[in-house]
Write a structure and sequence with these properties.
mainly alpha; two-stranded antiparallel sheet; 2 strands; rod-shaped; membrane; transmembrane; transmembrane helix
Length: about 100
């Protein structure tokens, strides 16, 4: 049976109101013994250092991965430039040979 907001529990056909009071044992309870404080400064410092180390490590691995990708791209560009330069050099040598051959005629 689900209670609805604004309704009282029903017992034997009559609405029953619940009292809002505390027991005598609860009122006379002995307070807890005083504990040594953990230290908010120490806890805050530990939390800050932990967060800084985790953030630093994640940034380091991100930058390292980005460096590897850019390094591979640079190597690919250097190899492509080297191949283009070798092709150009072979074309120049071929043209020089043709010019020399034409001069001999």
């Amino acid at each position: 049976m689900a209670l609805r907001l604004g309704t009282l529990p029903v017992l034997y056909g009559r609405a029953v109101a619940r009292p809002f009071s505390t027991s005598r044992a609860r009122l006379e309870a002995v307070p807890l013994p005083a504990r040594k404080p953990v230290g908010a400064f120490r806890g805050g410092l530990f939390g800050f250092l932990t967060g800084a180390v985790v953030a630093g490590a994640s940034v380091y691995y991100y930058v390292l991965g980005d460096y590897r990708v850019s390094n591979e791209m640079l190597n690919d560009d250097i190899l492509a430039l080297q191949n283009a330069t070798m092709k150009l050099q072979s074309y120049i040598i071929e043209l020089e040979d043709r010019v020399d051959h034409l001069k001999k005629k």
